[in-house]
Amino acid sequence: LILVVVLQQTVNFSFADFERTVDDAGIFGPLVFTFVLFLGLTIPFNPVSDLATVNVAALLFEPEVSIAGTVAAQSASLVVNYWFARHFGDRTLRLLSGERAAAFVERFGGRMTYRTLFSLRFALPLTGIGIDVVTFLAALGRLGFIRFYFVSIIPWLLIDIIYFYSTSYLKDQSFILFFLPAAILVTAPGAFLLWRNRRSNGATTAA
Prior knowledge:
The chain is mainly alpha-helical. Helices cover about 80% and strands about 0% of the residues. Helix 3 (about 30-40) runs antiparallel to helix 4, helix 3 (about 30-40) runs parallel beside helix 5 and helix 8 packs across helix 9.
């Protein structure tokens, strides 16, 4: 988006021109999007924001194309992140955080269940910096990959469908409203956990 703005100001290159350029690229446009999103989901502290990547896809592609590309990138990242965490997670954790922190994370990962995994997949900020903490914990907890994959991808697929179809509708209504689904999806899990924590504390105090 920043590139489009710069081009528009310097060489009169509009967003419509950018859309036509992507359309002319054919299948390579969605493939580049899928690859960039995959890198964002697997490379720690990637400078390219995953949220910005999917926002651009929502603007440029039809919902079905965006959903297919996103699911492909998410599926590939689940394979890579799980494999890395299963084979090198313990060693990497001890190297980066020390023995005590590694032991704490391993204990937490040992309590990971498929139900917990399913719930945590709705907390999108947990993968926002390229470190899939949930997959890391699931691999350390020795959850089987096949069930791990489906329990992970189903919540993400539901989010993908809601996000891309809602943005497709809203971008025709108002450009400002276009960003509303992303804001809700990012902030809603944290707001829900905060509300649940306050409710639990209130019940404890009353008791």
